[in-house]
Known about the structure:
Elements: E1 3-8, E2 26-27, E3 30-31, H1 32-42, E4 46-53, H2 58-67, E5 73-78, H3 83-91, E6 99-102, H4 112-125, E7 127-133, E8 139-142, E9 145-149, E10 156-165, H5 166-179, H6 186-191, E11 198-201, H7 212-227
Parallel strand pairs: 1-4, 1-6, 4-5, 7-11
Antiparallel strand pairs: 2-3, 6-10, 7-10, 8-9
This protein binds cytidine-5'-triphosphate (CTP) and magnesium ion.
Cytidine-5'-triphosphate binds next to helix 3.
Catalytic activity: 2-C-methyl-D-erythritol 4-phosphate + CTP + H(+) = 4-CDP-2-C-methyl-D-erythritol + diphosphate
Keywords: Isoprene biosynthesis, Nucleotidyltransferase, Transferase
Enzyme class: transferase
Amino acid sequence: MKYNVVIPAAGMGKRMGIGTNKLRISLQDKPIIAYTLNVFENDPWCSSIVLVVNEQDRDFMEELVRSYKFMKVKAIVKGGRERQESVYEGLKRIKEECIVLVHDGARPFVRIEHIQKLVQVTSEKSAAILAVPVKDTIKRAKDGIVQETFDRSELWSIQTPQAFKLSLLKEAYEKAEMDGFTGTDDASLVERIGHHVEIVEGDYNNIKITTKEDLYFAEAIIKGINEK
Ligand code: CTP
Ligand code: MG
């Protein structure tokens, strides 16, 4: 089974607070974005990668793709101010109907077996996302007062990749743009045009590196992988 992937990597990493894109940070001498690209380079099901970057990082990213010999990177595209704009720019580069994945550059530890499971489900259902069961109890609060406690057994922490039939995702993005809607993930745009989205269970190592503490978790995950 084949797919193409859009990797948004054009953020500023503000919550990391280092003044440059967090994806340039090295873990054991390798930049975070190189771990992410490596997973897809090594997945035989992946046909091509569209990497979305901001202009400040373009030289760095081009050099990285060259030096690590990421042959599947077919385009390095300029991103936008929001993640949603960046993904949309990436999607515009894929023309032929296919299964398209969207995967955060900031999630370097996704496993090929989970990607492939996701793609299999998408080939039948057109939309599927990777997720893990929520470990904490989640409550909704307003002005510091609890309003509601959710039934944890129904809650999922949503990750990427998120996978879709290309035409469906493009339709969802076009509608969102028309309505001025911004979602926090790709699937929410598809949900709002009335299409079902399947959940595929992944694993807890597929973290999004967001704040400084996540770098400790990332080092521990790499150590765990190397010891296997
Ligand atoms: N991203 C992007 N374009 C943007 C914003 C984010 O391509 N305008 C990418 C990031 O590079 C990252 C992914 O989307 O790979 C998830 O975003 P997030 O973790 O929020 O990264 P940043 O936006 O860089 O971090 P922050 O929100 O702390 O500034
Ligand atoms: Mg962000």
